[in-house]
Design goal:
Elements: H1 4-17, H2 23-26, E1 36-37, E2 40-41, E3 46-49, H3 60-66, E4 78-81, E5 84-87, E6 90-92, E7 100-103, E8 111-115, H4 130-133, E9 137-139, E10 145-147, E11 150-153, E12 171-173, E13 178-181, E14 184-186, E15 192-194, E16 204-208, E17 211-214, E18 216-221, E19 224-228, E20 231-234, E21 245-250, E22 260-263, E23 266-269, E24 276-279, E25 293-297, E26 300-301, E27 324-328, H5 348-351, H6 356-360
Parallel strand pairs: 3-4, 4-7, 5-8, 6-9, 7-10, 8-11, 9-12, 10-13, 11-14, 12-15, 13-16, 14-17, 15-18, 16-19, 17-20, 18-21, 19-22, 20-23, 21-24, 22-25, 23-26, 25-27
Antiparallel strand pairs: 1-2
């Protein structure tokens, strides 16, 4: 059975070589779509990346590093990626604010940034990477935007049965005003780390029409994050226990009135019926006062979720019932309320406080959906 790694590489190879000609010639016309080219730039703050060598840079990191620091909302740079697989870790430092990353074909499946570090992977200088260090893409800057890009971590447990640190992050985002449109996040454990730079920092993040897959806690962290119209897919595992895993593991700071919000999303699965839970609260040792928060509203929840017991504990010391978990007007077999005590429901009046606007539009009037 092919692994995600071979599928990603095969997809990229098909894109680059489907014409039977040299890759650079095969997609020379329009490889950056409507976003211009090195000879017809959108503006002077646009860079083009092509693994075949016809852009300004061959790697994503080279392009990111070529952008200036100290940027603002009016001087941020744009990096446009040609179709292909970019096997590299990428770091956007905190001083490169308002950077935009665009997939040139406007299809996230065409543009893949992937690497394969896990928390237990040995670092060249000694020690291991840990969860944060495992990220394929680390985004430290405010104002980051991505459109039509796949972010993946294709490290596999089956290849490393000796590992205990099996967290393998595709993206760690900590900046405020971070937005992802039509992107894909591929991994297994801890795929998408939606976080902030500190306990007192309430970073706002927006994910629209994205696809996120994984098995254990694959959307986690303490950011104020809205997922709108996204697909969240739980993956089948070769294990005998249930639940096989959890979609969300929020670690919202107690002072933050807004945590994770999934609205208009679809929960799908390749696992057996009732194999997964929606969430469990993460109260990390670095913040034992955390009070995780998750609201799922007007979403279609498939049979892969255990309708009778959709929430569980990560630690008995911090039961999910003491956290801020709630639902509103969800549908589907995984949303059926069979045990009311196990599925806290909002009233219409309460639900009015859980919208993309109330979560994201602060004093700066940020509206990333426009």
């Amino acid at each position: 059975m092919p692994t995600r790694r071979t599928v990603l590489l095969a997809t990229a190879a098909a894109l680059l070589g489907s014409t039977g000609t040299d890759p650079a010639a095969a997609y020379a016309a329009g490889k950056w779509g409507s976003y211009g080219s090195p000879t017809a730039r959108l503006n002077s703050r646009t860079l083009y990346v092509d693994p075949a060598g016809t852009g300004d840079h061959r790697t994503v990191q080279a392009a990111v590093s070529a952008t200036p620091t100290g940027t603002t909302s009016t001087t941020g740079w744009t990096v446009v990626l040609a179709a292909g697989t970019y096997r590299e870790p990428v770091l956007v430092t905190a001083d490169r604010r308002y950077l935009t990353l665009l997939g040139g074909t406007a299809r996230a499946t065409d543009v893949v940034i992937v690497y394969n570090n896990a928390a237990g992977t040995a670092k060249p200088g000694g020690g291991t990477y840990g969860t944060s260090g495992s990220a394929t893409v680390t985004l430290l800057a405010d104002g980051f935007t991505a459109r039509d890009v796949t972010f993946a971590n294709d490290w596999l447990r089956a290849d490393h049965p000796e590992f205990t640190g099996t967290q393998a992050v595709a993206v760690k985002a900590v900046g405020d005003r971070s937005a992802f449109h039509r992107c894909r996040f591929l991994g297994h454990q801890d795929t998408l780390y939606a976080d902030s730079t500190g306990l007192g920092v309430f970073a706002r993040q927006y994910y629209r029409q994205c696809y996120v897959e994984g098995d254990v806690d694959f959307v986690f962290g303490r950011a104020t994050a809205v997922l709108e119209g996204c697909e969240l897919r739980t993956l089948a595992r070769s294990v005998t226990f249930t639940p096989q895993g959890f979609v969300f593991a929020p670690s919202t700071a107690v002072a933050n009135p807004r945590g994770f919000l999934a609205t208009g999303c679809t929960f799908t699965s390749t696992a057996p019926a009732a194999a997964y839970c929606l969430a469990r609260p993460w109260v990390p040792s670095s913040d034992t006062t955390a009070r995780p928060m998750l609201t799922i509203r007007q979403s279609a929840i498939g049979a892969g979720i255990n309708a009778a017991a959709p929430y569980a504990n990560m630690s008995a010391s911090y039961p999910w019932q003491s956290q801020r978990f709630a639902e509103y007007l969800n549908t589907g077999p995984g949303a059926v309320v069979t045990v009311p005590a196990n599925r806290p429901q909002l009233t219409a009046a309460q639900a009015a406080a859980h919208t993309r606007e109330t979560y994201l539009t602060g004093s700066d009037a940020w509206q990333p959906w426009k």
